[in-house]
Amino acid sequence: MANIRVHALAKEIGVSSKELLEKLNNLNIEVKNHFSTLTDAEEKKIRDSYNKKNQKNSPTNNKVKENKTNKKQNFNKKTEGNTIEAKDQKSSREPKKRFDPNKNRFNNRDTKDRKDNIDSGRNNKNTSQKNFKKDRNNKADYSENKFNNKRNDNNKDQNREKNHNFKTKERSFKDSNRENGDYKQDRKVKSRSFNKMSEVLTEKDAKKQEYSKKKSSKNKNYKNNKVDRFELQEEYKQRDLSKKAPKKKVKKQLKKEVEVEENVVIQVQAPLMVKDFAKALDVSVSTIITKLIGLGIMASQNESIDSDVCELLADDLGIEIEISAPGVEESIEESFELDFEDPEKSLKARPPVVTVMGHVDHGKTSILDAIKESHVTSTEAGGITQHIGAHTVTSKGKKITFLDTPGHEAFTAMRLRGAQITDVAILVVAADDGVMPQTIEAISHARSAHVPIIVAINKIDKESANIDRVKQELSEQNLIAEDWGGDTIMVPVSARTKEGIDDLLEMILLVAEMGELKANPNRMAIGTIIEAKLDKGKGPMATVLVQKGTLKANDFVVSGIASGRIRAMNDDKGKRIKKAGPSMPAVILGLSDVPNAGDLIYAVKDDKTAKTIADKNKEILRENKLNNANKVSLENLFDKIKEGEMKELDLIVKGDVKGSVEALCQSLLKISNDEVKISIVHSGVGGINESDITLASASNAIVIGFNVRPNINAIELAKAEEVDVRTYRVIYDIINDIEAAAKGMLEPEFVEEVQGRCQVRQTFKLPNNNIVAGVYVLSGKITRNSTIRVLRDDKVIFEGGISSLKRFKDDVKELQTGFEGGMVLDGFNDIKEEDSFEAFIMKEVERK
Ligand SMILES: Nc1nc2c(ncn2[C@@H]2O[C@H](COP(=O)(O)OP(=O)(O)OP(=O)(O)O)[C@@H](O)[C@H]2O)c(=O)[nH]1
């Protein structure tokens, strides 16, 4: 025999689940929640205790009980051999299994009536009248059908049930002046008691009800009501007493009643695994899996389901759930108190952390080497620095930590992972070459991260060096040298002769001093993983840059999913160390896995904590894989503005010529309105490259290309990072799109779908003077009906159709990756070897 659940017994006894749970607790019966089941002995114990209590109560209560029992008996007699009454099944052990379809229908109404009553009760003093009207209407509705008697019975029982419930509620609010008796009296009592209950609900449960109402608002509510009504009508039309209603509906109904009466809202954090969802709802995994199959979703118990599916399932089960997204809850840092603000007086000055950036070949590595050579070997014991991702030098008794991987890409890649470890950026500009495209990129990357820039004008030993020209070009990028009236420190250096290197270090220390870089060294350490690898002999090795506190050689640590106790710790010179303070790099051994560069690492109090956090991170990782990154796109821009998520739209603008880029930026900046401010994170001449995409990703920006296209790597990266890249041929269209997106009016009907890319390997002239491009397909495919965009250095020089596509001598419909073919373009003959052709089609999309 199945055991009864707490909520069912509570309902039967006429107390709230909460009250019963308290009672169970007092009786030392251990249960988890209102869905827990009770053994026979436990049930008896609780019933006995309530019986005793009831006996002690006023005679009215006894009368009620007796009355109820009699009715129950009578009713059971009436329904014998025909239908089984649902409510009275509560006294049986399997309330959900033995159930009558007709009763189910009335229950539907009952539940709905209650919903209506509860809702209206809050606002309407005439609830009872309305209620009775409804009851009467119920009768009228069904009066002509041949099941009249039974319905009356059901209605009576329904009233009795309500009466009983209301009485219970009343009882709990100490209203003893309640009458009870025959059917008429029932109605009277119901009228009064419901009014009372409505009031009580208004006062006490209004919030809860409001919430659940809100929760199931809009379509959910609408859908439910619609379904309920529809089901009711349909079932009524088609009812066949010889058939029992499907059990699931009964369950659904019963569950619904429980929910409506008790307002139980189950908290679910989606996405989650099927088995976890089943556990949260206290239903079997197989029930969930079956329901999923019903929804056309094949999922095992270990697969995750998203919030939409959870809602559908809960709806189907008649259980009210509240879905929260991961991240809304306490973060791991919060729950384990991993990070906290240090009191001002505990803060001590710490060395600056520096990244070197600049255009290719301008001397980034040479400057880093020059610094190491002149400031490491001579001053530090131990000798040559190891490549560990970061190293420390000492200048005038003060330490400076340099990140070993130069370049803004590495810097932004780190930022992308949430690590902002750089305090000062050194922008290397070769004095003989001046400001180049990557110099401008580096400036944008540093600015976007709000990191101060010191310019190192390198290669001053060269004859062709022209420092003033560099300063002039930099001023065009709004970096004005101090001696030119600006506030950017510019140091002429030579990595070759080491001239100016000391000055550079001095300036770094000066900027650091102005930045008042401080940290508390006396706390458990927090750092960032700079580099990590798996060493065949030593296991996972990680370079940590300590940011707060002091990392000790035998600390328990956790970083992402990796945890463990530090077995050994070395500094950047390969020397064993016992501790590393703020801004110091250290290589550690002892982690269980190879952590991710850019992830934080925490020292924790013990192994158990480290492991627990790592496990939690594993869970989050799994969930995050299911959640899409919430990147901005022109499509979702308006929603984000509306939700208050976006106040500023960051753009990266690339174009084919300087003049048009500048004009475009000016026009874009004018779009700013009260809701959204447009800001240009970076602008430049040339194709859209990976650096643009990483910057866009790190700063949640949209990339706009005018007459330029992303290269293949940038396309791949944009896809992976979900960066919205828009390319245009007409400035007016860009302005229109951004304006429309900011107003929520962007509704594209056609979108471009790139099919493939090919490269021109050879050109031939036909007798009619048309040029045939001998092409090799690099990616995707080229179809005969696609439009071709001719790219030279990622700049668009022509866009048009194909007039002929051949493979050897045959006309073909398409050329796949890895194939060669000949192509003549419609109206374009200026084809050159090394040109790229991008094939695309315009695809119609549904308006949103
Ligand atoms: N004359 C002279 N040559 C230099 C100086 N600094 C660097 N070079 C030379 O410039 C070239 C590029 O130097 P790198 O340090 O490799 O430049 P980089 O910016 O690190 O280059 P990538 O890593 O390729 O971006 C090398 O041949 C260096 O020898 C300098 O101060 N004077």
Automatic annotation (TrEMBL):
Chain segments carrying region Disordered: 39-226
Binding annotation for GTP: 358-365, 404-408, 458-461
GO molecular function, one term: translation initiation factor activity
UniProt keyword annotation of Protein biosynthesis present: yes
Region (G-domain): 352-500
Principal location listed in the UniProt entry: cytoplasm
Keyword flag Transport: no
Coiled coil: none
Keywords attached to this entry: Cytoplasm, GTP-binding, Initiation factor, Nucleotide-binding, Protein biosynthesis
CDD domains reported in the protein's UniProt record: IF2_eIF5B, IF2_mtIF2_II, mtIF2_IVc
UniProt record similarity statement: Belongs to the TRAFAC class translation factor GTPase superfamily. Classic translation factor GTPase family. IF-2 subfamily.
UniProt-annotated location(s): Cytoplasm
Functional description taken from the UniProt entry: One of the essential components for the initiation of protein synthesis. Protects formylmethionyl-tRNA from spontaneous hydrolysis and promotes its binding to the 30S ribosomal subunits. Also involved in the hydrolysis of GTP during the formation of the 70S ribosomal complex.
Compositionally biased spans, kind Basic residues: 214-223
Biased composition (Polar residues): 120-130
Biased composition (Basic and acidic residues): 41-51, 77-119, 132-144, 150-188, 201-213
Domain Tr-type G: start-end pairs: 349-518
Source species, domain of life: Bacteria
Matching Pfam families: EF-G_D2 (PF22042), GTP_EFTU (PF00009), IF-2 (PF11987), IF2_N (PF04760)
UniProt-listed InterPro entries: EF-G-like_DII, IF2_II, IF2_N, P-loop_NTPase, Small_GTP-bd, T_Tr_GTP-bd_dom, TF_IF2_bacterial-like, TIF_IF2
Protein's recorded name: Translation initiation factor IF-2
